[in-house]
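Handover notes (outgoing to incoming on-call)

Open items:
1. UBR4: sequence verified, structure written out, both below. Nothing else pending on this one.
2. Nothing else urgent.
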Amino acid sequence: DGRDTLISLMEHLKACAEIATQRTVNWQKFCIKDDSVLYFLLQVSFLVDEGVSPVLLQLLSCALCGSKVLSGSASAGSSGTSAPGGSSSGQPSGQSKSSTKKSKKEDKEKEREGDGSSGSQEDQFCTALVNQLNKFADKETLIQFLRCFLLESNSSSVRWQAHCLTLHIYRNSNKSQQELLLDLMWSIWPELPAY
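UBR4 structure tokens:
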């Protein structure tokens, strides 16, 4: 029964993450309306099973980092995995490479057209949501998050996800919150050799 509940929870979380990735501004607006969501996700992210954490980190990233960061990391990941396949396919790969270049150029042009207002709106939401999170997140919660994902996690993709999230929290925080985050990072630094 507990296993069925976990499977159901994962299906719901994955659906939420998919929607949040596709409609980032809507997800950000939802998080602004209900200011308990992000802090809850932050707290739960390091308390749940390792398999659930990446989806929670993705939801946090959608709200706090925006879609540009997500698409950048996704394209970096996909280009890394698609390169070997392209080189082994022989001559047709040359044709597919040129068509891929064309589609990438078209995508970039579309992004430029649509990015103007939605990009700046997303950035404003990112800053507002980081400030909202900073109001709720205490030192102990933040240090547990940092320790769990930057030190204890065995998954490099989870560590990079948490690293990106932490960096965006830092960049969108005010001076005193930035200093707090730096102090917390330095406080766990001596633990690094143990990992």
